Predict the structure.
Amino acid sequence: MDRDPMNTSEARPVGTGPRSVARAVVIKEGDVFFLADHSGEVPAGNHDGFGLYYQDCRFLNGYELRLAGTNPIALVCSAERGSIAQFELTNEPFQLDGGTHVAQQTFGITLQRVIDSRNIALHDVFTFQNYDVQEHTLPVSFQFQSAFDDVFEIRGLHPKKVGKEIKPEWRDGLLVLSYAGADRINRSLEVHTDPKPQKTSASGAEFILKLGAGECRTIQLTLCIVESREQPDSPAAVRSDPVLITNAIDRRSQEWLAQCTEVETDSTLLNKVVIRSLLDLGILKSSLDDLEFFSAGLPWYGTLFGRDSIIAALRCSPISRRSRSKQSAYSRNIREVRRMIGETSSPERFCMNCVEANWRT
C-alpha cells in the first residue's frame, strides 16, 4: 500500500493529479478499503479503480469536493496508520457571485478519514479555516456517484449478469445511492451529513460557511454501506464517533502486535521496519464468512489469493507467539485457506498437505 506523503513542492489542483492507482492513497480496515487520489477525492466516473470497496464491490466511484465551484489544491497527505488518513488542502483563487475575489490559500482544509469496519462505514471530518484577517463566505459542495461495480468488472472482466441501478434520492435527510443486484442482494450507500446541508441536488450537497478571521468550521460526512436481501424501509441510524473508532483501531493494532514475537536489534531503523511490517500485515487481515485470511492484490484488488495468503502466513509463522490453547493467526490462515480446497485427491491437495506439515515442523 502506497502511504508515502506527496511532495509538497508538487502541490496541484485536484484535476491534474495522478490517475494511476499505483500512486493512490490506500487505507483498509477489515473488509473495507478506500482508494483516493492525493486530495482524498475519487474522480467521478473513473475507470482506474479509485473508490470505496466492501468485499468485491465498489460502492463509490465518484466523491468530489468543490470550493465555490473550483477544485481544491492538494498540499500533503499521509496514510501511515493504515486505516486512517489525513489530507491537507487549500483553495484556488476564485470569485463569488457578488464579485468578491478570494486569493489562493485563503482557506486551509484538513480532512481526517477513518474506516469503521465494525459498522461498515467511512467517516470523513473536514475542517475549514479562514487564514485571512477578514470574514469570508465559502460555498462548499460535495458530489457522490456509484455504479456498484464488481471489482473484476473494473479490471476488464464483464459480468454475466447485471443488476438494476436505482436513481439516487434524498430520504429522511440522507442521500441514498442504491442498486438491486443480479445476485438478489440490495446494496446501498447512505451519506449522512453533520450539519445538514443548506442545499441539495440529485446526488450532492452544498454548505455555505461564513468564517470570521481565523475561524474554523467542521463538516462531518459518514458513508454507510448496507447490504440486504430485503429492501430496507429507512436508512440506518449512525452513532459512531470517529475519535472512538480511531482509538479502537489503535488498540486493535497493539493487540495484534502482542500476538507477534517481539524482535529487537541494535538498529533503531530496523526495529521500526519490523513493527511497521507487522502492522501492515495486520491491516491486510480480511474475512469471508468464518474464514480469516490475509488479503492480497492491493491497490488493484483486495481479495483472497490462496497462494499469496498462504505464503504470507507461512513466512511469518516463525515470529508468531504460539500457545497450547490458541493457534496463531498465521497457522489459522493456512488451515482455513486449506479448507477451501476440494476434497478430490490431487497433486495440488498433496502440496497443501506438505505446506501444513512444513509449518508443523
